[in-house]
């Protein structure tokens, strides 16, 4: 048996859970899949890899430019402002942080969800 208070709060809790799991529309930038990235890269898109130099050396997308997350804010002026910038890391976490920084610097960014993990799992090429 459930209390009246519990029954009243359940719709609110359910709604909050849905919002917490939904993409963050207020982030100011989209998150794309590796499939979308592959199409963009094949078309010459600018790709920024925000992993460490050591991670980048272990394997990266051939056209990627390496700019570690801890340097993104200080070097944001090096990132193009005249075209979309795809941002990738290992899993999508650091790239989302970098995308937030770059979005605030008025860059047109797209975070790559799943990062290099998903890229490799999809069987796309990696350069070492």
UniProtKB/TrEMBL annotation:
Domain of life: Bacteria
Membrane-traversing stretches: none
Entry keywords, A to Z: Signal
Coiled-coil positions: none
Signal sequence residues: 1-25
The keyword Nucleotide-binding is annotated on this UniProt entry: no
Rhodanese domain residues: 41-128
Keyword tRNA processing included in the entry's annotation: no
The protein's name: Sulfurtransferase
